[in-house]
Amino acid sequence: MQLSTTEYAVLGLLSFGERSGYDLKKAAEAGVGYVWTAAKSQVYAVLPRLVDVRQERLPDKQVYRITRRGEDAFLAWLEEPVDYFSPRSPFLLKVFFGGKMSREALSAHVSRKRDAAAEELAEYHDIEKRIKDDERSYFGYATLRWGMAQARAWIRWADGFLKELEAR
Prior knowledge:
This protein is mainly alpha-helical. The protein has 2 domains: about 5-80, Winged helix-like DNA-binding domain superfamily/Winged helix DNA-binding domain (Arc Repressor Mutant, subunit A), CATH 1.10.10; about 90-165. It has helices at about 5-15, 20-30, 40-50, 70-80, 90-95, 105-130, 140-165; strands at about 20, 55-60, 60-65. A 3-stranded antiparallel sheet has the order 1-3-2. Strand 2 and strand 3 (about 60-65) form a beta hairpin. The radius of gyration is 20 Å and the shape is elongated.
């Protein structure tokens, strides 16, 4: 059975312990949310396909746990090489065609991207304060540092590009 990235991410979150659908979505936002996101509806949609056992705890609350088969599938996926990174970006496509739009519109696109990267970086700094010295968060912190580096790179690029546009 071929699973989607969302399904593998849910299995990975379940590998840390049983959770409700709501708890899975919250764990994704607090943990892997800076490298993977899924809509709440996606999390709920994939759960029935992934798990065989559901435990009723409270009324209207189903708690899911990973099965041995799910653990095996998740570990096999983790060890598969990553074949590509998607370079697709509607934002960069618009920059590529920047000569076809007004300088104001292009500057506004770049400024919004820069502002979004700055907001992400601030959020990442808040997360860093919580997890930096927690040994259990070592691998999450490694991916957080990647996100921080990427946000800083976007900010540097946007600042430089906006100066170039102004000088043209």
